[in-house]
Amino acid sequence: MYIPKIIYLSISLFLLPSLCSSLTTYKSIQGRLYLYYPNSDVNLDNETIFPEVPNLKNNISALASLCDITPTCIGFNTNGWLKNGSTSLGPNIVDVYLITDTPPLPYLNVWPYPTSVTINYADNIPLIISTPIQFIATNPSVDLTNAFQRFTSLMFPHGTNYNGNKGIEYVKNKYSTSVPVLSSITVTVTDVNIPLQLGVDESYTLSIPSSSSSSTTITITANTVYGAYHGLQTLSQLIAFDFSQKTYWVNSSITIDDSPKFAWRGLMIDPARRYLPVSYIYTTIDSMTYAKLNLLHIHIVDCDSWPI
């Protein structure tokens, strides 16, 4: 089935941020939660009573300890400056850590938003994906094999000839840690033979490993292939491509448990009154899968009765 490339482009450029952008994440340092802004001083002044301490440059633990004993400190940057929270312009060349006492609400750029999202923000950093990635079905079926072929082009619209080496070095230098390279997606379906019908189980669980684990596999579990389709669709929205590093990546330590709120999630098209080329109808059906809709109503004719 035809899937328009313009939709691929919108997913890559609009829904998914760049690895090199100032992407805010959360980090736990010595038991305290910090907002972490790469390459940004977020317009906060330096502490006047604690000038830049060259020997503490990039020493995150020492800077966090110094901030803890400084009453006016709200954070620090990696140049060795404590931050006091006033609002003059700062440089846009260093990482900054700002204290926060409120754990963030889980949020992902996924549509429709999943029923349950769990994110370990203390370990929520990019994991590099090596392509071509291996799809593994623990209970193989023709439906899953076809789905893997469809979703390869949706998850990796810029090709699959990237081993992620540049991204690996970038993450290692940026986060001062080595992370596992994801090489496979394992899909487990309880019963691959359940027929499609209204009310069929469409739930799934998607798990992306932590950066500190040795796992190199993204896992999707579902009771039916229809739930597995939704899990793959969600994963396709989480994967991003970094053009400067020529690397696909996805954030670590994410678990999603999802199922539709409504059994009937439909759309109507009206070729009886407004002509629609067949290719447009195919495109509409493809677009419905992106939003996890499951019913298409086609108003074909206006006649009260008509022969088939």
Top CATH class of the largest domain: Alpha Beta
Arrangement of strands in the largest sheet: 6-13-9-10-8-7-12-11
- What's the story with the biggest beta sheet? 8 strands, mixed
Order of helices and strands: HEEHEEEEEHHEEEHEEEEHE
Low-confidence stretches: 1-22
- Proportion of residues in extended strands: 15-25%
Q: Report the oligomer.
A: single chain
Total domain modules:
3
- Helical proportion, percent range: 10-25%
CATH topology of the largest domain: Chitobiase, domain 2
Mean pLDDT: 82
Q: Say how many strands there are.
A: 15
The coarse silhouette is elongated
- Structure classification: alpha+beta
**Termini separation (Å)?**
26 Å
Rg calculated over all Cα atoms: 24 Å
Number of helices: 6
The CATH architecture designation of the largest domain is 2-Layer Sandwich
